[in-house]
Amino acid sequence: MEHILGTAASAPIDVDMNNFMAEVVEGSSKQPVIVQFWAPWCGPCKQLGPVLEKVVAAANGKVKMVRVNIDDNQQIAQQLRVQSVPTVYAFVDGQPVDGFAGAQPESTLTQFIEKVSALGGAGADIASMLEAGNAAVETQDFASAMQMFQQLMEADPESAEALAGLVRCLTGMKDHQAAREIVDQLNDEFREKPAMQAAILALELAERAAESAGNLDVAQAAVDANPNDLQARQDLAMALFATGDNAGAMAQLLESIRIDRGWNEDAARLQLLEFFKTLGAANPDVITARRQLSTLLFA
What is the phi-psi region of residue 255: left when phi exceeds 0, alpha when psi lies from -120 to 50, beta otherwise? Predict the structure, then answer.
């Protein structure tokens, strides 16, 4: 088996349940960790192993490589949904960020290691940029947020969080068509990410509101004529939201709740909560409206 293990100096560490946490999850906070899943009976593993070790060694310490024998560590393989061997995952900051299955040519492996190496040491920067981008979205500074999310996408094209941020920016800038084009091309894995689900919710709400924008004057006139016309208030709230008057939209729903809290199965309160979720807890208008809602509900 010497031809798989390579030389002692460059041999990857064999990892099992006892040291997976230390070597891979915790270890990848210091440098990217390449995990090769293999088995003694696997022919392609014997082809991939030495070439992968050579490419990792050429990275001069930017990444570390470990191996997992799936015959001896079925629990690890199952948890990471390894379907076949060889499979290779790259971990950064405790999470798998990239990977492939099957033997690959050296040129492909070199590109893979270079991409993963670029993420090394950038984990904290990526996390802080994501946080800053999301904060900018919540204060509706979409131009700054867009710039941050675009930089993140360049660093990690597979980042669902950064792509979700782009969708939220486009939605906030009322470019619903561009946001919809991104969403419609997503696979199920991306759609299921919490950040993307929130972005899709925001887009769908904005699209519904946009359909109401043309009825702004009609809805306003109906409310002026009959302040107790709660359907008109609901329509007016959506139209105001579409124009970017978030405070005005939420004020209409709060007034509806004050007039008749349970109207149409709590429609006004549920719509208000949807606004809260879409705009974000840090949004100043949301903070004010949430306080007013609490006063109404618990008065």
Answer: alpha
- The mean pLDDT value of the chain amounts to 88
Mean pLDDT of 212-220: 90
In angstroms, the CA 121 to CA 32 distance is 8
Q: What is the DSSP letter of 73?
A: -
pLDDT of 17-27, one tens digit each? 999 999 998 88
Residue pLDDT, tens place only, 226-264: 999 999 999 999 999 998 899 999 999 999 999 999 999
Quick one: pLDDT band at residue 124, thresholds 50, 70, 90?
A: very low
Look at residue 80 and give its three-state secondary structure.
coil
Quote the CA–CA distance of 218 and 12 in Å, as a whole number.
70
The residue among 102 and 94 whose pLDDT is bigger is 102
Tell me how far apart the alpha carbons of residues 195 and 189 are, in angstroms, rounded to a whole number: 12
Active site residues: 42, 45
Distance, in Å, from the CA atom of 65 to the CA atom of 67, rounded to the nearest integer, reads: 7
User: CB under 8 Å to 53, separation ≥6 — which residues?
Assistant: 6, 10, 11, 12, 65
- Identify which of 228, 286, 235, 291 has the alpha carbon closest to the alpha carbon of residue 258: 228
Does the reported pTM lie above 0.90?
no
* Cα 146 to chain centroid, rounded: 15
With contact defined as beta carbons under 8 Å apart, do 184 and 199 qualify?
no
Other C-beta atoms closer than 10 Å to the C-beta of 230 total 21
Burial of 133-158, coded b for 16+ CB within 10 Å and e otherwise, reads: bbebbbebebeebbebbeebeeebee
Judge whether 36 and 92 are in contact, CB under 8 Å: no
